[in-house]
Design brief:
Elements (H helix, E strand, L loop, with lengths): L2 E5 L5 E11 L9 E6 L5 E10 L19 E2 L3 H17 L4 E11 L6 H11 L4 E7 L4 E7 L2 E6 L2 E5 L1 E5 L7 H19 L8 E11 L2 E11 L6 H8 L7 E2 L1 H11 L10 E6 L4 E6 L3 E6 L5 E11 L5 H20 L5
Antiparallel strand pairs: 1-2, 1-7, 2-4, 3-4, 3-15, 5-6, 6-14, 6-18, 7-8, 8-17, 9-10, 9-16, 10-13, 11-13, 12-13, 15-16, 17-18
Helix pairs in contact: 1-6
């Protein structure tokens, strides 16, 4: 049965079940409650759910998860990632871009019996996240377990908020000046994105570079809010702001070109948007699809479990340091997926 669990706007949980309709056109999302996945490449899958519990009980315990114990391979091996960092720095030196989020996608083969829904429960116990989501709707091609700490968009009526994360370290004392610079650059980009759809003078930065702890690391987070102009719909909002600036770079158009040139594999749900839209209430919570596992079927029939990790590259980046950041972001989540860490 189609099933999904999301974080709610008040910090609780929403559970939804039953697939009434599936669409790949945002204009169809005009009534009802929808589970939404938008890949980094811009492909939308939205499922209207027939039953919605907006006050779902907390998860009591994680089901048995045998672990994804196969070898993980990366779309960019370590030397290729280091080379990609240096290429980004060369582009920055030429003046074509200021910051690029360079990512790699990891994958391992898993048997059909492993449930991504069970993995979502493991993540909820071992790596609780404020914008977690588990979507188990195989008939729509959605098998996702997400432990995202980052808001792409929250909508409540005509008010929208984006909370980009830039700056990551194992502890607060290890954050560098470049981490703060990364955050400020992306905040400026997000402000510009929202100004395309918000009333003049309403876009503001509520918090800049606040420190937020998460299991095994800390982030710098900022909050940008605006009030939508009359007549702005879901398509207008997504067209103006997607993909999220924190996982693309600045300026966005040249950062996206660098990503297309340097990353050999599509990101898919990773770095896209994962969450829900309640079209009846003009409400939504869409997380940036980071700290995210998803299952997919290869053309040769293999079922693969994938996970993405990346880092923001600026002129002051050290290639080995950025590689270590991708490993830091992945380490706890991969350990949970392997069944090595339980809490």
């Amino acid at each position: 049965m189609a099933w999904a669990r999301f974080s709610s706007l008040d910090g609780g949980a929403i559970e939804a079940s039953g697939a009434q309709a599936v669409t790949h056109d945002i204009d169809d999302v005009d009534s009802g409650f929808w589970a939404v996945v938008l890949t980094f490449e811009g492909d939308l899958t939205a499922v209207r759910m027939s039953s919605v519990d907006r006050d779902a009980a907390p998860l009591r315990a994680a089901p048995s998860w045998p672990g994804a114990v196969g070898e993980w391979t990366a779309s960019l091996a370590d030397p290729a990632y280091v080379g990609g960092v240096e290429e980004v720095r060369e582009r920055i030196a030429r003046g074509s871009v200021y910051q690029v989020n360079l990512c790699r996608v990891l994958g391992t083969e898993v048997p059909d019996g492993l449930s991504v829904g069970d993995l979502g429960a493991v993540l909820a116990q071992g790596n609780p996240a404020p914008y977690a989501a588990t979507i188990d709707i195989p008939e729509a091609g959605l098998e996702i377990a997400c432990a995202s700490p980052e808001v792409y968009l929250v909508r409540q009526g005509d008010t929208v908020t984006s909370s980009p994360i830039k700056g990551t370290a194992a502890s607060a004392d290890l954050l560098l000046p470049k981490d703060y610079a990364e955050n400020v650059m992306i905040v400026d980009l997000v402000r510009n994105d929202l100004q395309h759809v918000c009333r003049p003078g309403t876009v503001r930065v509520d918090h800049l570079c606040r420190l937020e702890p998460h299991p095994g690391l800390v982030h710098l987070v900022s909050d940008v809010t605006g009030v939508l102009r009359e007549g702005m719909g879901w398509r207008d909002l997504l067209d103006a702001s997607f993909p999220p600036g924190s996982v693309s770079g600045a300026p966005k158009h040249t950062a996206l070109q660098a990503i297309a040139d340097l990353e050999p594999a599509a990101r898919g749900p990773y770095c896209g948007a994962i969450g829900w839209i309640d079209a009846d209430r003009d409400e939504a919570l869409l997380a940036v699809g980071i700290r995210t596992f998803w299952a997919s079927r290869e053309p040769d029939g293999r079922r693969m479990l994938r996970f993405g990790t990346g880092a923001a590259i600026t002129w002051s980046s050290d290639a080995q340091g950025e590689l270590r950041e991708t490993e830091l972001k992945a380490s706890r989540l991969l350990a949970l997926a392997r069944g090595v860490v339980r809490g």
